[in-house]
Amino acid sequence: MSTLPPTLPLVDEALVRRLVAAQFPEWAGLPVERFPSGGTVNAMFRLGGELAVRLPLTEGGAGDVPREREWLPRLAPLLPRAVPEVVGAGEPGEGYPWAWSVGRWLPGRNPEADAVAQPRALAEDLAEFVRAMRAVDLPGAPAAHRGGPLSVLDAETRKALAVLGRDPEDGVDADALTEIWAAALHLPAWDGPPVWLHADLMPGNLLVDGAGRLTAVIDFGCLGAGDPACDLFPAWNLLPPEARPVFREALGVDEAAWLRGRARTLSQAVIALPYYRRGRNEAMAANARHVIREVLAER
Questions:
Q1: DSSP bridge pairs for 47
Q2: Residue-range definition of the domain harbouring residue 134
């Protein structure tokens, strides 16, 4: 039986002020400002100049909070870029039903596909981060979201492809995408030990500085162990074609893993597009369209 209230409170600045005042009175006087984001699982608010408040928007996203609290303090010293640092563990209150967090504010901006300032340098930065994740040797890793075999994504991917094929709005060549996806299902599966993954390296989860270099990676809600191809997403959702070989070479990715990574990125995009388009979340829909174009261009 669900324990959720019949009506969730509006997640806005007023709710954040009430939660902070009740649970962290030392920060009660700080200004609160909602941070615009293309994310759909969490709402982000800036608290003063040095802090950020992150509140899950869905019951499914609420599980990310304890996962990050447990693992980020252990991962942070092992990674070459900044990651979120939780400094306040918020609990349900003021009608809000889930755990939430206060973290250090991380400066930077999200990179944009088709507008990468230093693509080769960013490819090297991303590869350095992925290598460091793969080298983590912490025991007890959870299974990464999307970290299993491609076959577990098949039903949902084909359902989304069928929707796109019936709807001419985006002009998606669903038949060509279906052929690419079907071929990927015959690729050799990962047969090594599971490796640590971020498992959601979307542009919205990356921060870059003014020169376009990677400064931080955020939102570790999907983290865990699985197929290393899961962390190849930036090759198609962010990096331009000329930078992909840099990323691939720096990671030493063989052909089967590279194509599994492309298929995983494609699956995420074709599932996201029919869900987020038509005004639901244009940032997510636009990136899904970008991935589809890039994958089709490689045929």
A1: 32, 51
A2: 119-297
